[in-house]
Each structure stands twice: as structure tokens, then as C-alpha cells.
Amino acid sequence: MRILVFSDIHSNLSAFEAVLSAAGNVDAYWCLGDIVGYGPDANECIARIRELPNLVCVRGNHDAATLGEVDQQTFNHEASLAITWTKRNLKTEGIEYLLTLPEKLVINDITIVHGSPHNPVWDYVMDYMTASRMFQFYDTRICLVGHTHVPAIWKESESVPPKGPVIDFHKTKILTKTILNPGSVGQPRDHDPRASYAIFDPDESTWELRRTIYDIESVQSRIKKSGLPWRHAMRLAEGW
Ligand code: ZN
To answer: What's the N-to-C CA distance of the chain in angstroms?
Structure first.
């Protein structure tokens, strides 16, 4: 079974389409939240994700903020401007769809959240110190997280704790309790501007991180046209 695991599309339809096409045939689509925010294609990304067969999706902090469930003051100024823009431009069916997203899902041996198993919408699992505290908060073997926009693999059994995120582009076999992050589709922050995603096979317990190029300039021009902060366009070209 091949599952496309992806996160943090952030209203970037060009990156999202590139990932869907690069992933090829898959049996299911698992989205780890933040469909909207930052980018200009909020309605288009929601319409596209809803077409996907065998889709599961959880709610991210930008999705929750768009629904007015989170205080916008907790976001930086430019992120907050994009949330205001999204609230203003998102169609009713988009809002209704975001409302259907749960904060957490458990499928067989896998927990699915946006942030962390402790605080599904808000916590960041950025380093091994944090990850090591998180293993106690879920009962399954695997926990899938997004939110940091940086791909990572954190294993509970790590004898030498890694200093930074473990990124392995080989097909990794998941043998122990592990937290996995596929990186971000629409706004990667690991200085690699290519859209990030993973192919997960729960039967074989394998995880394969992948990257794909997409037309960054077309998103940048839509950001400009929409009046969203230009900083959101700049960062796409460099992946920060
Ligand atoms: Zn995000």
C-alpha cells in the first residue's frame, strides 16, 4: 500500500499539483493540516484536496485561525495578515470544509496530527529533546506530524540523540516508535525550495522522503496580485 503523506500546503496550488503528480499512483492521501495560510490559492487548494480519493486530513493552526478558533495575535504580523486575507477570500464551502477537519486521527498503528501528539494543533517537534518528551503522549507505533515545515525522522530508540532534524531520503524502515514529518508542500523551511512530501507504506513499514520542483514564479506572481505580503513570495524561492 502506498500512501502520500503531505503537510502545510499553505494555499500554494502550484506546489500541491506538482506533489500530486510526482507522487504518481497512490492508494490514499493523508494530509497533516495547514491547507491554507501564507499563499494565494486557498479556495483552489481546498477544492483540489476534496477531490482526492481516500483522503484523511487533520486541522492545522492556520486552518484553525482561519476559522477564528485561535487568537491571531499569536501569529507573526505577516502570517496574521495572510490569515485575515484568507478569512476574507475563502468561500463558504471552504470554511465548511475546514470545520470538518479533526485535530487528531488514529488509524491502526498510526497517530496523525499537525503539531504534536501532546498538543495536536500547536506544539512544534523541532528537535530530539522535544521529540523524546512526545513519545509518551501517543500509544501507536508511528506518529505523523507536520507544522515545522522541515522533514524529520525521530526514533525513540536513538542511542545518540541527533542534534538537528534527521532527514533521510532513502527508503527508511520504521522498526521502533517513531515520529515522522514529511516537510511542507507549499512553504519548505529547510533551505531547499522544492516541495516536500513522503510516500509511506504501512504494510512494509517504509517511509520515503521526496522532493519535487514546481513553478515558484507563478505562485509569486499570484501573491503579488493578491496583495499578500511579498515576504511570503521571497521565502519560497529560497526555502526559509
Ligand atoms: Zn504550517
So the answer is: 33
